[in-house]
Specification:
about 200 residues, 2 domains, about 60% helix, about 0% strand
Length: about 200
């Protein structure tokens, strides 16, 4: 669901960039014979920059995954958001200084429209920046699952630990006493056929 929201905002960002591109180009064309409006030029630059940013954000994951970096994505989102914020604020501040000659075209209405659509573009980029940052940091903070350890199986040398005769008893050998000598059973306790014989008391 989050991917669909971001994709929708990407489309809105592209459409707003096209709209601002056309309106700001009109404002620049009206003032070009007499004066240069830096704020309108900056909005025009923002529109062109937005196409470059969208190309990086949308195309690199599909065609150039090696160039798609998490920090690069956040940097492009943040820079573009700041550009749009500075652009529409600057143009809105310049509009009261515009003067129209009745004999020529008046770009005040177009300038207001460019600033308004620039503000919407800023909100769109602010939204994608917030959602992208949350998504990236959630992946970064997600604990990695540790592989389960295999159960420890005692080695043959560990079976006699703490009990010197334990290993020998398991395999049917006579136990070894503390001095390290092998304890042999009394032969008199067994008959010739290997059966146990009770000694007379």
């Amino acid at each position: 669901m989050e991917f669909n929201v971001i994709l929708t905002l990407r489309i809105i960002q592209a459409l707003l960039a096209i709209i601002v591109l056309g309106i700001s180009a009109y404002v620049i064309d009206v003032f070009s014979p007499f004066n240069t409006i830096d704020s309108a030029n900056f909005l025009l630059f923002n529109s062109i920059w937005s196409f470059v940013a969208l190309g990086y954000l949308v195309a690199t994951p599909m065609f150039f995954p090696n160039f798609h970096n998490r920090w690069g994505v956040l940097g492009v989102e943040a820079i573009t958001m700041v550009f749009w914020f500075a652009g529409f604020i600057a143009l809105a501040a310049d509009i009261p200084t515009f003067r129209c000659d009745p004999n020529f075209r008046c770009p005040i209405g177009a300038s207001k429209a460019a600033a308004t659509f620039g503000a919407f573009a800023w909100l769109a980029w602010l939204g994608t920046l917030g959602m992208t940052a949350m998504k990236q940091f959630e992946k970064y903070e997600e604990p990695q699952q540790q592989p389960s350890e295999a159960p420890h199986l005692p080695q043959l040398s560990e079976l006699g630990t703490g009990d010197e005769g334990h290993e020998n008893r398991i395999y049917g050998h006579p136990p070894i006493d503390g001095s390290g000598t092998l304890e042999m059973p009394d032969v008199g306790q067994y008959g010739g056929n290997g059966t146990h014989v009770e000694q007379e008391r």
